[in-house]
Amino acid sequence: MPDSAEGAAAPARAIGTAVVPAALGPDRMPARRAFVPEQSRPFDPFLMLVQFGPCELHETEWGFGPHPHKGFETITYMLEGGIEHRDSRGGHAVLGPGDVQWMTAGAGIVHAEEPPAALRERGGVVHGFQIWLNLPAALKETAPGFGVLRAGDIPRAQPAPGVAVRAIGGRCGEAESPLRLHSPLFLWHATLAPSARWTFAKPAGWSALSYAFSEPARGRLTAFDRAGEAVALANDGAAPLDLLVMGGRPFDEPIASYGPFVMNTRAEIAAAIRDYQSGGMGDLPA
Q1: Tens digit of pLDDT for each residue in 134-170?
Q2: Among the listed residues 233, 234, 247, 229, the one whose alpha carbon sits nearest the alpha carbon of residue 8
Q3: Which residues are within 8 A (CB) of 37 and not within 5 positions of it... i.e. 6 or more apart?
Q4: 105-118 average pLDDT score
C-alpha cells in the first residue's frame, strides 16, 4: 500500500492535466464530472468521479429518488450539508459534513440519496463527491452491502511538513481507514499548506490521480502513469490546497456501462436490466 517514498523510487509521470468545468444539471446543481465509465480506463479501478456543489440547497432540486445499481461500488463523501441514504436491502443512514458512505451494489440494489428533512427545512450549502469503484468480473454478482464512516472516525496523518491527510480509504503511513471495499486502493483527502511538497510511494502498475477542489485550482484533474512508484504533489499557491488523491490496482477488464449498470459485456447489461425490471433487485418506495 502507498506510503512515504524513500530512496530511488521511479517517479510517476503526470500523463494528463485538465480543468474540469462545472455544469448545471437538470436538478440545477453545479457539478464537475471529472470522468465517467466510458472515459475511465486511465483511472481503473475507478469508474466515475463527480464533485457536486457547493450550492445552496434551496437553489436546486438536488436529490436522487429510488434507482438501481449493479456491478460496482459507490462512495459518497460529504464536505458540507447532508444526504439521507435508503436502500432495498434495509440500509439507512443520514450523513453530515465529513461523513462517508459506501455501498456495494454487486448483484443489484435499489437505493435513494436525498436531502435529509432537517436540511430541507433549514437550508444550507451542499457540497461533496460521488465516486464509483468498479468490481472485477468475478465479483459482479457479490452480495450487496452498505456502511458509513463518520467524520470523527476517519484516520488522519501528517506525512510531510504542511500536509494533512484524511485516510478515507486505504492506508497513509500509520493511518489506515476502516472502510472495507473489494479493491486494493487508496482514497485520501489531502490538504497542502502553501509551498508544501509531498512525495508518496505507490505500487508499480497502480493507477493514481489527484483532483483539486479548493480555489483557485478547483477542478484540476491530474492523472499519473502506472509505471512509476512515487507520486509527487506540490502547492505553489498562496492558499491551502485541498485534493482528493486516489488510485488502485487496475482490473484491465472490458467495461460495458448503461446508466446505473456497469458490467463486462452488453449481454450482461441486458440481463441486469431484465433483473431490475422483474423486481430482482428489490423495491424501495418513493
Answers
A1: 999 999 999 999 999 999 999 999 999 999 999 999 9
A2: 229
A3: 47, 48, 132, 255, 257, 262
A4: 96
DSSP of the chain = --EE--TTPPBPPEEEEEEPPPEE-TT--EEEEEE-GGG-GGGTTEEEEEEEEEEEGGG----EEEEEEBSEEEEEEEEES-EEEEETTS-EEEE-TT-EEEEE-TT-EEEEEE--HHHHHH--EEEEEEEEEE--GGGTTPPPEEEEE-GGGS-EEEEETTEEEEEEESEETTEE-----SS-EEEEEEEE-TT-EEEEE--TT--EEEEE-STTSTTEEEEE-SS-SEEEEE--SSS-EEEEEEEE-------EEETTEEESSHHHHHHHHHHHHTTTT-----
CB–CB of 2/169 below 8 Å?
no
Are 160 and 139 in contact, with CB atoms under 8 Å apart? no
pLDDT tens per residue, range 234-259: 999 999 999 999 999 999 999 999 99
273, 83 contact by CB (below 8 A): no
Identify the residue whose cell numbers are 429510488: 66
By the 8 A CB rule, do 50 and 35 touch?
Answer: no
CB 119 within 8 A of CB 78: no
Q: How far from chain centre, in Å, is Cα 243?
A: 12
Domains of the chain: 3-19+32-277 (2.60.120.10)
pTM for the structure as a whole: 0.95
Amino acid in the structure at residue 177: S
Type of residue at 262: V
Of 197, 242, 257, 200, residue with least CA distance to 224:
200
Other CB atoms within a 10 A radius of the CB of residue 30 amount to 18
Decide if 170 contacts 188 (C-beta within 8 A): yes
